[in-house]
Amino acid sequence: LVSRHHKSEDTIINIKQAVIGGSSHMLIAGPCSIESRDQLLTVASALKKAGLTVLRGGAFKPRTSPYDFQGLGEEGLKIMKDVADEIGMVTVSEIMSPAQIDTAARYIDIFQIGARNMHNFDLLKAVGQTQKPILLKRGLSATLKEFMLAAEYILHQGNNRVMLIERGIRTFEQATRNTLDISAVPILKQETHLPVLVDVSHSTGRKDILLPCAKAVLAAGADGIMVEVHPNPPAALSDAKQQVNIDEFYAFWKGLCDSGLYH
Ligand code: PEP
Ligand code: MN
Fold first, then answer.
1. Ligand 1 and 62: CB distance under 6 A
2. CATH classification of 13-259 is 3.20.20.70, yes or no?
3. Who is most buried in 1, 46, 155, 230, counting CB within 10 A?
């Protein structure tokens, strides 16, 4: 069902005023974690000024250590809905289990399935039975075949509004948090009809190379980019190192606009 042989034309996903796939690029941004109303509103207002339509932010956080901040849960999603309604944005947030679906559906527009849950087949089946668009992340060590089959699980249940997002894979390289697999972009575009995005924050873990990586994936045919933005990254409760502040976000966004690759 995900294959180009099954459907040759690109899938375009409309979510309120946001369009993902097709001729225009989508830039999704927002903090790693929703931390407070103030924090999210500050970021969202800055993004809105740059014309962005989709706000990201985690409330259920899949942290490596159980001692790290686990997210605000439903309270975070309430903040997200409140902020998004106030300024008029579309929202995406991660859910980690089928049990979170009904709650999350009340607050957010797009369900994100995180890298760690790409192989959670019960979750894939469960979100496949919802009407929400799904942003599916590539697993930490997933092959492209496995990634496409994870998407297939969702479509197989009847939900064809799926977006694929490359977020870096595990390799021996230490210079970046993960290795951005640029070749994933043209391969996924060739083999599937689904929109293909790239999370430049999690794939590199480095804010100093976000712009060249974003340009590279747009040149390779990506339909969009995801980037983490926080009002005060050193104080962030998760992914403090890789999040850009608002000025850095504007510089990144301007760099993309000036590149001629982003439209
Ligand atoms: C995230 O986007 O917040 C996240 C946890 O990313 P990933 O699942 O790609 O690690
Ligand atoms: Mn993060």
1. yes
2. yes
3. 230
